[in-house]
Predict the structure.
Amino acid sequence: MGSATPSPPATVSGASYAAAAATMAHYKAADSKREQFRRYLEKSGVLDTLTKVLVALYEEPEKPNSALDFLKHHLGAATPENPEIELLRLELAEMKEKYEAIVEENKKLKTKLDQYEPPQEEKRAE
């Protein structure tokens, strides 16, 4: 019976070994950066929010024409308010209060006017 002798391991020259080691280090660094970024997204709640919105899209009985618009709409509700929008909301609330005050004042003035002026029908009878 002939015995097969194992072939000796391929030798790698110093230069190609250094290149292979540099490539491996590059992949490890990239993986490390990706892992750090993934942890950052997870810690900040981005992954949970994206998952919830994507699940909502998946469970939508009638898929929207634009999945991107669906995502924008649902993510927009979860994001903090734009300062300009908040200022506009405050201004709107103030204007509503002023409007209500003016409507109330108008009712009071009409009541006073009715006390001092006879109704239109009495004016015609004279």
In short: The radius of gyration is 37 Å. The first helix runs from residue 14 to 43. The chain has five helices and no strands. The mean pLDDT is 81.
